[in-house]
Amino acid sequence: MQQVTQHPTLYLLSLLLPTECECSLLEKTTYQIRCPDFVTAFYVWNRRMLCIYPLLRPGDMVEVIGDNFYHKSNPLP
Q1: Which of 20, 24, 56, 59 has the highest count of CB atoms within 10 angstroms of its CB?
Q2: pTM of the model
């Protein structure tokens, strides 16, 4: 939780994501979102363009992980 309070983007993502998902920052440019199941992870991945990308900076990436689900975006232009 301390990482969320120190990083404004993580805080905003925690407000947007489903309550059962957790977000953390890896390597200063990769936001890892962990979801408990395939359906939730798939939903988060499909909504990334409208909900997540507007909060990120150029070069940032999103990684979504769920049960039998893994996708990682390319760096934002």
Answers
A1: 56
A2: 0.88
